[in-house]
Amino acid sequence: MKKLPFLLTCILLLSATVLIGCKDNKTDEGETPATTTEAEDNVGSNKGQAFIEGDSENPNALRLAMDSKDHTTLVAAVQAAGVENALVNVGPLTVFAPTNAAFEKLPEGTVEDLLKPENKSKLAYILKNHVAPSNYPIDMLEKNIEKGRSLYMASGENVAVSKEGEDIIVGGAKIVGTVKVSNGWVHIVEDVILPKE
């Protein structure tokens, strides 16, 4: 019977050591590292991590869009679809971010209809068609063009990549700007990349 208190003491010491170890598990920037590494683990979840401010000077894809006056429609769509966490995940990921003007090119009433709660899953599918769960800076996109490869998107669809003169076209949308973000790349596009279905 004397072994029971000894065993209990060992368990308590082990538990305290684990808790202290977890508390001290910080990155160089003082933030606790994320435990999720795949973009699709948080697609559609709304756990609040999307709006946590980071100390990094290099924002994540969602924070970049939120800070841009040219992407207010995209941010509203991301929030309506509940896919914020897909854009803040550790990555790497590549986001093709349509501007407000790109959404305005859609037939009248399309955006308003997609933002309705009953169309949440359809909107999420369209937005996932703008996210490649991989690292695609411009030079990698050009290599894909040379090899005739398409891009696999989080929607499950493959999107064609081509070049017209100096312009890179992804799913029919021309890239007009590129920004490196903390979790990958954001390519600003002048059209919405609509899924085939």
From TrEMBL:
Keyword Nucleotidyltransferase part of the UniProt annotation: no
Signal peptide boundaries: 1-20
Stretches the record annotates as Disordered: 25-47
Annotated protein name in UniProt: Fasciclin
Any one annotated GO CC term: extracellular space
Keywords: Signal
InterPro entries linked to this entry: Adhesion/Biosynth-related, FAS1_dom_sf, FAS1_domain
